[in-house]
Amino acid sequence: SMLSITLAIPLGTIAISILFLVFVAFSRLWPAALPVGAWIILLFGFALLLVWLLAHGRDLVLKIKWLTFIAGTVAFLLLLLLRLAFLRDLLAPPYADSAFHYLLTTRLLDPSIPLSALIPGSYYHLGFHVFTAWLATLTGFDLLSLLPLTGQVLLAVLPLSVYALTLSLTENRNAARVSAITATLLWSMPAFAANWGKYPAITGIVLLPAVCAAIFLLCSEKRMKVRLSLAAVVLLIGVTWIHSRVLVLLLCAAAAVLVTAFLLKHSSTLLLRIFAGLTLIGCGIIYLTTPALQTIYNGKHLLPIIGVLILLPFALIYQPRITSGIGVFTLLMLLLSPIPLPDWLRLPAQSLLDRQFLAMTFFLPLSLLVGVGASALLRLARQTWHKAMVWVILLGWIIFSAYNTSAYTPDPCCNFVTPSDLAALDWMKAELPPGSTVFIAAIQKEDGLIASDAGAWVAPLTGFSAQLLPFDYAWFSGQDHSAICSSTPTYLYAGGQPYSFQINAITRPDWYQRVFNQLGTSIYRIIPCKP
């Protein structure tokens, strides 16, 4: 069925990341395990596909609506091209987080690095990197290109995942189609988060709806066999391993099911509508006091929210139970967001759902509400031309709103690496003496300093030690200069970005010597302090 097809790709991604980790571990004993394992997984996947086609191909050919299937395939390919267009102006993955993802993936691919030293003790997302390592082993692509490529391809998979979840919940194809289109084009998130290098978070959010759909289908089986329970557990562990904060969203979804399917099981339609309305009002109040969401859904981005508000009454009237579940999920997500993590976890994260992750995830309940409301509106349209008019209005609203999503080209805020930066990094590899230390510019975030220009790539691409300093470091203060001048070879990297180091060696030629300069990117040698 179409549901099986839409679930195959996202759930297969989880399976690949789990299976290839086994070969990564085995490669520490036998380095050839990486290429051998990558091809075994690929061939095993093709074998499963062949078996499935032999078992269900005949029914699929007879039952499938070929016009719809062809239209969906063409739409998916166009979306993929749209996502890949994001890569056109990138020389390296955006932002500072990408440098860490690059470094971690290279460690996975290096059999000489023991597993115990693979990742920092505080890092808690690994699945995306294992999946990318599998792709790198198969294709031989450079990780500078493969990391953003993988992120954009996964974003193209998002409508399949949302379609599967909406269809499994509503059993209404119109609701599933509208939700999928909405999730794909209407909102800036999670696509804009690619500018922040949030690839593990994007992956987890993209796969979450498919996992929820699969578990829902498994639980709806009349006989919940042991193997079905095991499959559900594996999916839960797998998607949480992709990004641990997905576990919080899964708990919110479980609570929504508990409230709507059990606590409100025998409630009247009127009570369900009142409950759903009050829950969504609570969500609206919290939204109005959450700046991270207002920056995405206001101003020129307000049109999508207006559409949601128009469709919301139809969802309340015709699907009050599902609308209640969406309301509970959203309300819990908003309430849990500011709750701090306990100190004993010792993670860099400060709260259960930080504001960035919340902003990235908020599109999901909104897209479900749009799908449910639109399907109710289409049900009211009795005549064919009425339905056609509703579709035209819906698609026009989505496409017009899509022009303001700011998610199809890299944002200047985070596209750090320029040709001059690549030239500077190549020069460093060739010219800097062994054991050199390079100071790189950083900005202060909630969890500490984070690199703010292409200096983030010094350690991953050159192997030299890189140390973070605030971008506004007082280079010409005697006290601050004495804190960084050293007898060992020491340099500073100025990348020409708004938050790069601002320095001019002419001011103190006895302290700093410019040794590289190209189109705004400079490297300075810090002259050792005199005894």
Topology:
Blueprint: H1 2-27, H2 33-63, H3 66-84, H4 97-108, H5 127-139, H6 143-170, H7 173-185, H8 199-219, H9 226-242, H10 246-263, H11 269-288, H12 291-294, H13 302-318, H14 320-336, H15 355-361, H16 363-380, H17 384-402, H18 419-431, E1 437-445, E2 448-451, H19 458-462, E3 465-470, H20 478-484, E4 490-494, E5 512-518, E6 521-526
Parallel strand pairs: 1-3, 1-4
Antiparallel strand pairs: 1-2, 4-6, 5-6
Précis, in short:
With 531 residues, this protein is α/β, with parallel strands linked by helices.
What does this structure look like?
The structure is a single chain. By secondary structure, the chain is an alpha/beta fold. The chain contains 20 helices and six strands. Strands 1, 2, 3, 4, 5 and 6 form a six-stranded mixed beta sheet that branches. β5 and β6 form a beta hairpin. α3 runs antiparallel to α6. The longest helix is centred in the N-terminal third of the chain and has 31 residues. It is globular and about 85 Å long.
> What gross morphology would you assign?
globular
Rounded radius of gyration (Å) = 26 Å
Query: How many helices?
Result: 20
pLDDT average, as an integer? 84
Helix content range of the residues, please? Answer: 55-70%
**Largest β-sheet summary:** 6 strands, mixed
- Tell me the structural class: alpha/beta
Distance between the termini: 77 Å
Order of helices and strands: HHHHHHHHHHHHHHHHHHEEHEHEEE
Uncertain stretches of 5 or more adjacent residues = none
Percent range for β-strand residues: 5-15%
Task: Compute the number of strand runs.
Answer: 6
